[in-house]
Write a structure and sequence with these properties.
With 302 residues, the protein is mostly helical. The protein has 11 helices and 5 strands, in the order ααααααααααβββββα. Helix 5 runs antiparallel to helix 6 and helix 6 (109-116) runs parallel beside helix 7.
């Protein structure tokens, strides 16, 4: 099966079935990561080297196994498609953002706050309707890069082992990559490796958002605003995405009881329920563009 058809098959499976409701492989991986963290970072005393060793034990054997299985005739192709399906988060993002949108549309702010709290790590209890819409739109743009475009990128570049490497590294960054007393040293490797693996995909995602939205504004926001953001990869993605949508995102947010003054991203009016719809559409159209380009590449090289 060609690369394009394998990519299409994985995306179609995600669209049809989404995440497993009973057991997801990343749940089991999360348990393994918790055990490794308790072993190598007891009482938060783990060093950078301990974090790198724990990361290696969690990620490298599974990546190697995926690489070996991917070489098997026929079964390897099927495995690659299933790995891509398991790693993609497109339908999941839609399923998590839809309750927020529906609550905002019926004017139920409390339900919207509860729904968006499942998407973001910031404190949502005091958000107004605009703040809820802003947080949801930011999540769609940023997680669209991490859980969708980066997954597609690594599948194209390195097949199943590339997807496994990226998805597990991204999961460990979400678990360990915090600048807290417990994880500042131990989680350093997880955070830096995830930054490295997402560097190119994030910029391709930002370019995709720009091309499919208000292109000039998106590129200008990317150039001027992204360097102000604290994440080297989220900055380009969210600045370009906000510019493509023609809205203002970013701004102050409360995390773990502490108010953080984040830069403003994008330009235009404040976010509202329509921004969530537009961000979701932008993400879907981006995936269709990537699929079309890969399928076109297959046809040209046939």
């Amino acid at each position: 099966m060609s690369l394009g058809l394998s990519l299409l098959a994985g995306v179609v499976l995600d669209a049809l079935f989404g995440e497993s409701k009973r057991f997801h492989p990343l749940v089991g991986f999360g348990r393994l990561a918790d055990r490794l963290e308790s072993r190598f970072n007891a009482a938060g005393r783990g060093r950078r080297l301990d974090g790198l060793l724990a990361w290696s034990l969690a990620v490298l054997p599974l990546t190697l196994l995926a690489g070996l299985l991917a070489r098997l005739p026929l079964l390897g192709e099927l495995l690659a498609i299933l790995v891509l399906y398991a790693a993609l988060g497109l339908r999941s993002l839609g399923e998590h953002s839809r309750p927020v949108l529906e609550a905002l549309q019926r004017g139920d702010l409390q339900a919207a706050r509860r729904a968006v709290s499942r998407l973001v790590s910031r404190d949502t209890s005091a958000l107004d309707a605009g703040g809820v819409a802003r947080a949801t739109s930011e999540s769609l743009l940023e997680n669209g890069s991490d859980a969708v475009f980066a997954t597609l990128f690594w599948f194209v570049v390195a097949g199943a082992p590339g997807v496994v490497l990226h998805r597990l590294a991204n999961t460990l960054d979400a678990m360990w990559g915090y600048r807290t007393p417990r994880f500042e040293r131990f989680g350093w490797a997880a955070a830096r490796i995830d930054d490295l693996l997402n560097y190119v995909p994030a910029r391709l995602a930002a370019l995709t958002y720009a091309l499919l939205g208000k292109t000039r504004l998106a590129l200008a926001c990317w150039r001027h605003q992204a360097p102000l953001w604290d994440s080297p990869n989220a900055g380009p993605v969210m600045a370009a995405g906000a510019g493509a949508l023609g809205v203002e995102l970013g701004g102050a947010a409360v995390y773990h009881g502490v108010r953080q003054e984040r830069p403003i991203l994008g330009a235009g009016g404040p976010a509202d329920a329509g921004t969530i719809v537009a961000a979701w559409s932008l993400l879907q159209r981006g995936v269709l563009l990537w699929l079309a380009l890969v399928l076109l590449g297959d046809w040209l090289h046939a």
